[in-house]
Amino acid sequence: MSTMTYQGYAAKIEYSDEDKSLVGRIAGIQDVIGFHADNVTDLRLAFEDAVEDYLSYCSEQGREPQRPASGKISLRIQPEVHAAINVAAEVSGKSVNQWISDTLIQAVHG
């Protein structure tokens, strides 16, 4: 899976048969920011313009733009899984955070 990204934002792209165009929106934030175009080159430009417009709008409004992620994840898992992660991290010579990060990167990027 390829992802269109710009300034830390990622785009979710779909094809609209009704409009016969590519339609995108910025993924991972609650603010709704959409864009569209008839071809990939124009879609890329529309995406970049949408991000720039969003950042400008937030600046004009005096508010921080939403970001897709903070880099922190809090989750609950079964104690047995947590113990297995501790062992796997120690065996690999990594901290638990580094082991989990590396494992997630591998899962996302294959």
UniProtKB/TrEMBL annotation:
Cross-referenced Pfam families: HicB
Highest classification ranks of the organism: Bacteria, Pseudomonadati, Pseudomonadota, Gammaproteobacteria, Enterobacterales
InterPro entries: Ribbon_hlx_hlx (IPR010985), TTHA1013/TTHA0281-like (IPR035069), Uncharacterised_HicB (IPR008651)
Name used for this protein in its record: Type II toxin-antitoxin system HicB family antitoxin
